[in-house]
């Protein structure tokens, strides 16, 4: 790394927790339960449990690796160092593609809550607003990582207030009896639900990608586990509330948290929930843009992506060109993509990323190990299984994009 422009180590452990938690408490908690309920039926909460267990395995693998390799890039760097360049590229490409789709999903979720409506005209206004937010947040990320963490802290606080308020309203409200969810749709359906819900858990990856900017990289493990534990507890409570209040209507409800609020007679709180969902999506989008930009920087440093993207702004010490390119790509997706498809596609790419993370942690020498190998084996098998169980369209599209990236790298290194 000597001779390369370095990123500034300005973040504390609390800042890292905020960045990761704001990424996890984003659009996922407000939208992911709907497609997951459709896939699993009454097995929804089992799917949530599976996603949480695999997320824990992935988190400890990421923490163990980040402590040994405290540089920007996350599993892309870990895969290169432990397994070799091709494995690193596979992880990095999966992360960049999957999380670029996540950024688009977050932006579209924000716009849908901020400008409710289903007409074609409303749809275009929503897309325009989403594109504008992506552009604004790209500029914010270019101003420096401490500004990013400060903004994420404010947005996270608003999201937590709204989610806790939602749980209080549902817990004290008078919900009408509802039909329970449909019968469990088999093991494959539960695994598909786990894969879709994993979309909401994957925010702790942003902590690992900020390893080069944390003052004490050895504390990254603590930050990841605090953020993940908080998110799991909130997701479980929200999932229980949605199943209790909405029942068999959950799989067809595009905005389940707002619908559940209205179902208990708290119409006055629905606008507040919409504001909270919008704030959550904004917080996740901000953290995601930062993480994808830094993985792109790491890949450009190794010439797996164009070398011009390895630029670091000399004043703000952030990956400026990488951040701009990612911002433009997200705007393009916002103008052309579908929200539900983005969730499945994102989950596939990120599960590939974490499969490489678990394999890398499994191969680390004994002196670098902090967790039992069995956790990495479980994480690896879980990631592969959940990725295969995702909707067919997401799997096919994900494999195709991964293949394009691998062929592109093969052509580049063969010259």
What does this structure look like?
The structure is a single chain. The protein has 415 residues and is mainly α. It has a single domain, classed as Up-down Bundle (Amino acid/polyamine transporter I), CATH 1.20.1740. The mean pLDDT is 82.
Brief description of this entry?
This protein has 415 residues and is mainly α.
Classify the helix fraction into a percent range.
Answer: over 70%
From the N-terminal CA to the C-terminal CA, the straight-line distance is: 25 Å
Structural class: mainly alpha
Instruction: Give the full name of the CATH homologous superfamily.
Output: Amino acid/polyamine transporter I
**Sheet with most strands:** none
* Low-pLDDT residue spans: none
H/E order of the elements? HHHHHHHHHHHHHHHHH
Query: Which CATH class applies here?
Result: Mainly Alpha
Q: Give the averaged pLDDT, no decimals.
A: 82
